[in-house]
């Protein structure tokens, strides 16, 4: 007995001699789930426990740690050096993972570190620092290393970083400790929130799906909440307001000592119960004989807390009164509210939630909207990843849903049944795609389909605003205030303001825009109200006026046609064509098609134009509508030219003859000349040069006799190209010089500067680089500025030849690549110029060699027409080059 006591005293003295003092780092470890592990391993548990102690002991002792105590699966060590203690923990976790364990069940060890002043006494420490370290270890999960801010401030280890887990109240301590997770290679990274600690109170709902994107939005809102006590997240139903607010609030829990509290006013049965709804969220019971609002006001007085108030638009007046009272009584109260309309409170900051990002496929990563669809599609398919070939279709779906998170979630539910391509093919009916519905238990009733979501707001609209919403659904894009006034036929300010306030219209720099899911809903309401015909006919009238304005100035006088004026309204004109080809006036549709003639050609959409025209012809026959011969002739002529662009020469000639017959019936010489002017081009394209020349000359003579020479310009251009082709350059130049004033006098033609383009080709054949450069630069600049993109691509080819002849082969190769890429994108052919381009491309290739030529050609192919034009227009004028005769001496 005496000997045993002596040995124990000897051990205690030895330990006491080696225990560190001063600034000490304490480490506690234990095995997570040790009781369950003991039951699983049975007799093997004892050897596993001993091996676990050996692994940890080697790592800790090797780092200079002094063992203070061992109790079951728990170890307590003290270190003089915080960095050594941390490094030992990382090494110990790695060693545990590397070892083979009985039954394949490794012990999952949790570790906690804290540094503070301490002195050993009789082989142990008596200080709160030890207890704090023990509580930190208790907060960890198996495989996780947690430490305090004191440890983080004292340690710098290569390859080791710290994840800030926020402030937590440790059991037995009144203050809060900021906990950090040790992050290092070989250690697990993902763990639940720290356990066994009293976290700052909150009642935020726990999402069942992961949160996608919104990083910038969270940063913006966080900054606003730091300086504003009332921030209202505004947006339409399904925009993701609630999810964003909850996600943001979850990251702010540690910043509010008295908690973060969530209340959804949609659960209140009526306006009188909004205070009760909030009291329930705060855990308050109504006091007998006392208004609930007074109970709430007393509770928040002197507290610093964040209230997340959802669906404030359910009872906007009552909610606004409640928030106003709380903000007045509690200077430490901050409110983050979500609503579809402003609350109208003094000091209210409105923050409108944007849709999820819609970056197109091809960026470094898909946009957030597409990412959400990818995640949900993988979940719907049992974890099978989305193929790269599906991204374009998912991007189409995301765009059709306008980036609205709820619409995306509902559309993604369809991916359980449909492929991405099948779903994308159905996005023209947004509500049908999003009415798959979700489980009634998972979301509020108002969010189970997009139809019910929008209906929640629609039912609150005054009659004028509801009618305006329905009638604006026929527009495909943004509208300005003047358009709204035309559609409504009355002062639009009040109804527009209502729709914007209720997030059913989005106000931006382009005017007022309706999101596609809302448009789809409003379109159904329009049909149900029996107002579709009148609304769509007004839209057609607006489209005809808007199309005419591309050809006229503010005083109604013709201006140089710029196809860029048609780009912003192209979708509107398509919507009008869709209506006129099915239910509306085919005659009005043919008028719109005539306005789009050159736009279709210059955007590579000739086939689309022909399709619309065929539908309109069918509509004329089906409806029995009377269309004047002159208008039919104009439509047939447009069809003929579009067919020629597509290389359908038989169809081109067929509709040219139809147009000629209709023009004769209309007795319109100018129209007849314009139609006949197009006859030479297809003949030239198929090699019938003599026939093409005869037709052109006959048409020019007819135009002169009838006094409509300007209407024969197309025949003049074709004849000039024919003369250029057979190198009759003087005749071509004379013809074009005489045509210049005719072109200048025709606003529809002069933006193309075809005279300058062909004169540039004539000068190239003459090797007159000065004249060629000047003509081609004028043509290219005008064509790009006025949106004649296929013509601009043609001019790039001519500029490439100019560079080739001017001793700039590398630049020539780039422009040849750009010209070919433009032809491919816009589905046009090089026509009679093809052999000329091939000849000069071969010459440039011979100068540069295959490798250099192909590299420059590829670089040019990657340029847009606008960027390639900028390169071409920057080419130095040949008369300014040092080799020019201007700078040489006799």
TrEMBL record:
InterPro entries, per database record: A/G_cyclase, HTH_77, Nucleotide_cyclase, P-loop_NTPase, TPR-like_helical_dom_sf
CDD domains per UniProt: CHD
Domain Guanylate cyclase: from-to ranges: 25-137
Alphabetical list of Gene3D superfamilies matching this protein: Nucleotide cyclase, P-loop containing nucleotide triphosphate hydrolases, Tetratricopeptide repeat domain
Superkingdom field: Bacteria
Coiled coil: none
Pfam (any one): HTH_77
One MF annotation (Gene Ontology) recorded for this entry: adenylate cyclase activity
GO biological process: cyclic nucleotide biosynthetic process; intracellular signal transduction
PANTHER family: HTH-TYPE TRANSCRIPTIONAL REGULATOR RV0890C-RELATED, REGULATOR-RELATED
Protein name: Transcriptional regulator
Source species of the chain: Virgisporangium aurantiacum
Species classification: Bacteria, Bacillati, Actinomycetota, Actinomycetes, Micromonosporales
